[in-house]
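From the pipeline queue, job 12 of 40. The input is one protein chain; the requested action is below.

Action: predict structure.
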Amino acid sequence: MYYRSSNIAARIFDRQISTPAPGTSVHHARRFYENLVPSYTVYEVECPDHSFRKFTDDGQYLISFSRNHQELIVYRPRWLSFSCNDDDCDKHDLPSKARRFDSFFTQLYCVSLASCNELICKDFFLYMDSNQFGLFATSTAQIHDAPAVGGAVQGVPSIEKITFHLLRLEDGEILDRKVFSNDFVNLTHNMGVFLYDDLLAIVSLRYQTIHILQIRDSGNLVHVRAIGEFCREDDELFLNSNAQDISSSDKNKQHQSTENHVENQMHQGQPHMGNSFLSGIKQRLLSFIFQGLWNEESDDTLRMQRLRMKFYFHFQDYVDLIIWKTMRNVTSCIYSILGQVQFLDRHHLLIKFGSVDGGPQVSRNADHHPAFVAVYNMDTTEIVSFYQNSADELYLLFEKFCDHFHVTSRNSMYMNFVSSHSNNIHALEQLRSIKDKASNSSQFVKKMLASLPFSCQSLSPSPYFDQSLFRFDDKLISATDRHRQSTDHPIKFILRNYPHSLKFKIKPGPEAGSMDGRAKKISSFLFHPILPFALSIQQTLFLQPSVVNIHFRR
């Protein structure tokens, strides 16, 4: 194998005279990013005091919200341009306009989304790149001590109004809205909502229901089905018709009884649908557990013994789905509830079952309770597989086939190159190193599997997070869309390949560092998915204006 120069001119010449191996042309082309890096920083850019959310995955738009969380502001990225009379412009400082935000972005429009008592959920945004639709959410304040009525789960907060807004990002027109009343959907980092192609899954934690919607090309949000209390479209009709038959039969018996006896029978004979039947999803789960235990033994005697120990002994727990516990002399109840969901494909959902404190608010110790994940087939309404979050079998699937959990829409081809331990040897070595250092294997497995199901569109497709190209400290920065504790030291991006040199640095905050070392600062990084261009945003916890730096290739 001959030496390949890292010089960009040599790489262009090499591209002309050689052909990459089959299936590697995109990876071969992405190595040009080793030469095209955001090598220059403009510190403390003069920009509007907005909350910047992210670039869309195709790089066409920058999404931001006003500080009062009432308005959506959308920008179009553009490159800084200026004139220079000298031959070597690189030696000159940039003009003063380079410190202005509008030199890099053009505002397209500003749209008011929230009403007077609603606020935009600034951590929520989903992008449908096939039609350039954006999904946003507004909500009223949480009510933590809301009573559990109408089948709601005790201990889950209530929000009077949650509104999902579907916008066409090209012109900001609101195409459709979907409202959930007196419900609770976890909108933080898109956890309670998942978008796959044109299908949208919204998880109602309060009523334990998965709402499946379809986004039409016309921009309409069409309700397809609801999975929870009922699994098939005609389940409710079937149960209601049978309940009417039972009620009619009871009334006939009551007419044949004495008048004194009628009063008692009227009270006892009413069908209580909420107490008589388990929800459809719980029935499917019980059926899967029973069938799995039944098929494990071929001998009838051993089979019955196993069912007694593993199923019937815990049957009341399965039916009630309530675990009573005492903590600090206060008795509270833990309900096994539907937690988070993601699509695996157009037919299968990965569902997480967790626990929530039966007190007035969600328990902070919920991570200590057992959690389970199940694969659910929406067409057959069956549970396909079921694992506890400490199962070694599930961890092996997670380690070898992580990309299958990071499911992306068919149109998002650039998302196929996001590094994971199932497609990148460096990420796999890092994971195994952490595993070898872990003192408790079971706790390590739980920690890794706690990320399942994955949040939708939570990873940046920027090539500078490609671990086959660059090496960086993932404790300070990564492709995951999360705030990080800020540091006054620059974050280094080092070439993974020869000559393993430092290519560029990203430093959030002022160039000279923070004057107040005691103030706790957090940083977020917005990388453009294609261009050598990034924003670093440093903010404190005291609602001071953010410090925005722009990093680009000069």
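Job complete. The first strand starts at residue 40 and ends at 42.
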